Amino acid sequence: MIFLSLTKKLPIMATKTNSRGRAQDRSKVAGGQQYEVNYEGKKTGSSKADVKQAVKTAGNSRKKVEAQLKKK
Fold first, then answer.
1. Which end of the chain, N or C, is surrounded by fewer C-beta atoms within 10 Å?
2. Would you list the domain boundaries of the chain?
3. What's the CA gap between 64 and 28, in Å, rounded?
């Protein structure tokens, strides 16, 4: 759908929202993504290897990974 602005006569496109959202991505840790592993390592004070092992052990849920890293 295209609407015209009354002041500038430029087309204004209707915005489409992402149905997936962003919260879902933030709640998971991608063990194969280096920046995610680095972020979790710095956040928890753990090594990269510890973070990768926690993802393998506990799954990719951020809460579970952080709980696993706190146990060490």
1. N
2. 24-60
3. 9
The size of the chain, in residues, is 72
Packing angle, helices 48-58 and 62-71, rounded to 10: 120
pTM > 0.90: no
Residues 23/49, Cβ–Cβ less than 8 Å: no
Please give the backbone phi and psi of residue 13, each rounded to the nearest 5 degrees, phi first. -85, 140
Pairing of strands 11-13, 2-4: antiparallel
From 25, 21, 28, select the one nearest 63 (Cα to Cα): 28
pLDDT at 8 over 90: no
